[in-house]
Every structure is written in C-alpha cells, then in structure tokens.
Amino acid sequence: MRIAFYAPLKSPCHPVPSGDRAMARLLMAALGVAGHEVALASEMRAYLRAPDDAATWAALQAAAAVERARVAALWQADGPPDLWFCYHPYYKSPDLLGPTLCTAFGVPCATAEASQSPRRAIGLWAESQSLARDSVAMAAVNLSLTARDAAGLAAAVPAARVARLRPFLDARPLPPAPEPGHLVTVAMMRAGDKMESYRHLAAALRLVPGDWRLTIAGDGPERAAVQALFAGMPVHFAGLLDADGVAALMARGALYLWPGCGEAFGLAYLEAQAAGLPVVAFATAGVPEVVAHGETGVLVPDGDDAAFARAVTLVLSDPSGRALMGRAAAAGVARDHSLAGAARDIQAALVAHVRGWH
Question: What is the rounded average pLDDT of the residues 158-178?
C-alpha cells in the first residue's frame, strides 16, 4: 500500500534531533518493514506555542491552505495514496492538511500518538484541539503508545477506534562496557518539562554520596541554565551526540537517570535499557509504560528528589542487583519494544480497521 506520512509537530527531516523526530522516523521505518511504500507528504510544521497567538494561528491556516493545494495537485496527477498516516496530532499541533485532503479524495486515515487534554482547551488551543479531535474521530484507527493517551481519546471521542502500540525502537546497542559510578543522561536543554527534569536531577544528585560522575548528552537554548544547576558537581557536558555517539555513551554507563517530568514515554529510556542500563526516574506521565519498577529500574514518587537520590545510591551500591536489572532491561526491550514487533502490531491494526487492507 502507498502511505502518505505526515508529522505536524516535527518532520522526520527536521535538522534538530528530538524524541518526536526519532519516533516519526521509527514509524516510517516500521511501516516500511511491514511492506508498505511510505512517502513524506509534507514538511509543513503546524505548531501553536501559545493559546493567545492569533497571528501565528492565522499564518498557519494560510500556509495550510497553500500546502493542501500543493498536495492535492500531486494526488490529482499521480493518484492519491491508500492511507494518510498522521503522527502526534494534539492541541498545539493539529493536522491542518489530512482531514480536508482525505475527505476530498476519499482516502482513509490513521493516527499515532494522538492525544487530548481537556485542561488545555483554552483560547486558540480550544480550536486547535478541536481540529485534533476531528482527526481522531475520522481515523480508521488511532494507535496509542500509552494507556494514558488511549484513555484520553476514549473520553474525548467515545466512538474513536483505538489500538495500542507499545513504544519501540530500532536497537543496535554496542557491547556493554559499564564504568562503575558512571551515570548517564540524554536530553535536550529547553524550557518547560525538560528544564524541570534537570532541576530535579541536579537537586537529587546533590544528595547522592560516594564516587560517581554524570555525563549529560544534549544541547539547546537552556544549556547555560542547565550547566549552572550542576555547578561544582562531577558532571561532564558532552553536547549534542549523534546516534552512534549516544550508543557509545550508553555502552559505558552504569545507570541511566532522568526524572521524566511530562514525558509521553521517553525513547531515551528504551535506548538506555537496550544498552543494559537500569533506569532511575519518577513514576510519572508515560514513564511506567517503558520502565518496569524493580525489574528494569527504580521509579520513585513524582517530584520526590530525596527518594530519587536514595534510589541512585541504592542501585550504585549493589553491583550484582544493577547487573541483573540491566540484563532484564535489555531482554525486555528486545522482547517487547522492537522495530519488527512494532511493524507486526501496526500491520495487524491496519488490517483490522482499514477497509480493503490485507
């Protein structure tokens, strides 16, 4: 089947790495592994940062009209695709292209990681979230990567057709060579939830005794503020690393740390566990979807820096227990979160819900 793929928040071709870009690429790869011909329909970014930014909202709508006309002309010349697949439509980033195009051409659509947040239905976000809700309502199937998102869709659109898809990655970890006391964090440095996680991480590590050191991979506009949080601590800032660099860093790590404030699920948790690193994080948002407490890591109450510090101290002081968790983490990713497994699950959902698919 020919699939037109679209990610309104961040194109898989965007130059700045992030979990959204990585997940978009992984979904395209999984659809390809399932045997489909996948093409990027558009690189238009539809992002409304603030609920009162009328100028940006008007500009996005105007740009979307131009982009819809461009895509429609291509479909008229070459024929429409068999499916429109939209990744991550939500209140800040609705799909302004697919619903109109699919209605005009009679093309079925699907979403992945769509979400609804009633408390964000304020100002212009109420309108943009309504458009995201329309995408969910018309989709032949909505692939939810977390139970929280699935429940949110069911509450907002009771008739929505929802199927679960476990978060996944294409893991090719290097042979582990863990360095005792080497803690690892991989995260972008930007305002909001990321910065909040960095604040909690710094506060917790000031309570961790012993001989440890932390390597942070990542960059962003808040780098100076992040560095200031860790002043005087044994922390190395590795900057922005490519996939090979992250894999090499994970291979040398003994423990992966990231509080996870507001994380949908966090691909970096899966990358760490695939490399055999246990995780310490908050039991918040979508983190428990990918980290099994007591088996592949330790999850502590949301916002409890002292509990986070105790968990780090405990895991570092127990080499045999840490190794056991690391082996369980790698096995769990291979078993439950592989690219091949995701391809099978996506294909099964499409066959079950999209008319004419086989």
Answer: 91
- Spatial separation of the C-alpha atoms in residues 260 and 243, rounded to whole Å: 21
**Whether residue 358 has pLDDT greater than 60:** no
**CA 147 – CA 153 distance, rounded (Å):** 10
Mean pLDDT (whole number) for 140-162:
95
Phi/psi for 64 (5° steps) reads: -65, -40
Spatial neighbors of 227 by CB under 8 A, at least 6 apart, are: 237
Cβ-based neighbour number of residue 326 at 10 Å: 25
Over residues 220-235, the pLDDT tens digits come to 999 999 999 999 999 9
Query: Collapsing DSSP states into helix, strand and coil, what is residue 345?
Result: helix
Q: Is 125 within 8 Å of 50 (Cβ atoms)?
A: no
Which residue in 169, 141, 157 sits closest to 3, CA to CA? 141
CA–CA distance, 179 with 67 (Å, rounded to integer): 51
CA 171 to chain centre: 15
- Order of strands, sheet of 141-144, starting from the edge strand that comes earlier in the sequence: 37-40, 2-6, 83-87, 109-112, 141-144, 162-164
What torsion do the CA atoms of 38, 39, 41, 42 make, to the nearest 10 degrees?
Answer: 120
Q: Tell me the β-bridge partners of 6.
A: 86
